[in-house]
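Subject: sequence -> C-alpha cells, single chain

Hey, anyone have a minute? Need the predicted structure for the following. Not urgent.
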Amino acid sequence: MKTVDDLLSCSPWFTGLSVSLQHALRVGIGLRKIEPDGYICRRGEPCHHWIGVVDGLLKVCNSSQQGRLMTFAGIPSGAWFGEGTVLKSEPWHYDGIAVRPSLVALLPAELFVRMLDESHSFSRFLLEHINERLGQLMATVQNDRLSEPSLRVSNCLLAMFNTKLYPISSAEIVLTQEEIGYLSGVTRQKVNRAVRDLHKLGLVDISYGRVKVVDLDGLRRFAISST
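Reply:
Had a minute. Here:
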C-alpha cells in the first residue's frame, strides 16, 4: 500500500524544503480513503487543505444550473490540486470526486502558507504549477466545445501525461472506458467507438475493458491534426 512518503518522494518540490519543513509535512499531513463517487471536497465548503493523491484517481468537476456536469481535470496518483483555493482562503468552487478507490493526502493550509514563506523553490514551483493548471483549464474549455468523440477522448488521455502537473505521468497510465467517460464528458457508447478508432490507428491498446496509451507522440499528432 502506498504511503505519504511515496507521494512526497515523487513531488518535485519536496527535496527543496528544509529538514524541519519536511518533518512538519510528514507529521502534519492527514490521510483519507475515498470510495468511488465519494467527495474529498464540495463546492461551497471551507477549504482547509491542499490535496494530494497518494493512490487512485479523482475528478474535479462542477454541475451547471441545468444539471450538466463539466469535468475540469482528472487528478491521478502523484498529483496535487486546490492551491488556488488555499491561496485565496476561499470556499471550494468545485467538487473533488473519486473515480476509483483512492487514498488522499490532506496538507493543512497553515503548512502550505509556511512553505510559501520559507521556501523560494516551492514558491517557484507553485508559480509554474498554477501556469500549467491555467493552460489545462483553457484546453478543457476548448475540449468541452468539441463534438468529435475521438478528439475529446484523445485530449482527455493526453491531459494525464502533463509531467509538470502529474510528476509520475511518464509511467504507464491505464484507464477504464467508464473512467474516460467520466473525465471527458463523453457517453460510454461514444467512448467505446472512440477508443476503437484510436486502436485502429495504433495509438491505444484495449484489453479487458481497459485502455492504455501505446503511442503518446502519435496521439499528440492526432489531436493537433484533428483540431
